[in-house]
Amino acid sequence: MAKTNLTIMPNGTFVINKAQVLIGEWRNFSGRPDRFNKTNTDRYFHVALTEDEGQRLKDQGYNVKYRDSRNESEPRLVFLKIFVKLDAPSGLKPSLWLTRKKGNPILMDEDIINQLDADNLERVKIRVRPYDWKLANGTSGRKAMLDRAYFTIEEDEFDAEFYDDSFEGEYSGDEEIPFA
């Protein structure tokens, strides 16, 4: 597991630089129903943490989880579920950006965010804010809500050839793309 850089602010907000976003069913940027909750529309993803980072976030009240490795030579998996609430009020709505190796970041809309379920992410930087909740029966907790993120997707030479930030026009979809 790649080492991340975790910075925790006094208000419980934290930043992870070089976050390792887990793949497969660990990602649900599109909000599709999952196998445990058929009516689920939550958007979320999980990030892997080091043991130290997991403990630091657990001390802040976050619901850090652990999964033992099937192979005794590998360390256990430490992870945190991060929720993405696109329909939050304007002051709490996350700011999500797609970056490439060259060019300016693009503010993502709902369609682009949905594609992150399958994309290979090369680099991710996230800022997460706490959401403290309490039920009528006294049960309470802290939920990790995505506040801001930069997702750099992995590009191959084919992608790089057709992504040109200096292009002044806009592709409408009607023109033919020339293939050599």
Mean pLDDT over the full residue set: 84
Structural class computed from helices and strand pairing:
mainly beta
CATH architecture: Beta Barrel
SSE order in H/E notation?
EEEEEHEEEEHEEH
In DSSP terms (H or I, runs of 4 or more residues), the helix count works out at: 3
Strand content: 35-45%
Q: Round the Cα radius of gyration to an integer and report it.
A: 18 Å
Low-confidence stretches: 167-180
Outline type:
globular
Q: Give the terminus-to-terminus CA distance.
A: 40 Å
Helical proportion? 10-25%
Structure commentary:
This protein has 180 residues and is mainly beta. The protein has a single domain (5-162), classed as OB fold (Dihydrolipoamide Acetyltransferase, E2P). Helix content is 12%, strand content 36%. The protein is built from 3 helices and 11 strands. It has helices at 51-59, 110-115, 157-162; strands spanning 5-8, 14-17, 20-21, 27-28, 43-49, 65-67, 77-84, 95-99, 106-107, 121-134, 140-153. Strands 1, 2, 3, 4, 5, 6, 7, 8, 9, 10 and 11 form an 11-stranded mixed β-sheet that branches. Strand 10 and strand 11 form a beta hairpin. The radius of gyration is 18 Å and the shape is globular. The model is unreliable at 167-180 (pLDDT under 50).
